[in-house]
Amino acid sequence: xxxxxxxxxGLLLALSSLVSLLRQKGIASEEEICxxxxxxxxxxLGDPARPGGVSAANVEAVLFPIRYLKAAAVNPLxxxxxxxxxxxxxxxxxxxxxxxxG
Length: 102
Prior knowledge:
By secondary structure, the protein is mainly α. It has one domain (3-94). The chain has helices at 3-24, 30-45, 56-73, 84-94. The radius of gyration is 14 Å and the shape is globular. The protein starts with a helix and ends in an 8-residue tail after the last helix.
């Protein structure tokens, strides 16, 4: 496996732990976290500097970390961080490849 992929896995686990802490402490609700991540997803999809010929798979790669954190934010076991493979599998099963405008 590519080392960068392993680093991304560790980073996402760390960030999902922080998201969980924000929820536990009442600093941010699940709805607030999901709303801000939805804004991040929209910003990624609407980036005018992104070349038009970027493949759907590459767009999905950009969106994966955002969708991962959204999935982690709705974890029913707020005090436990889910294993990376479990959340990643869920994200992969629910991905929506954006269709080109036109």
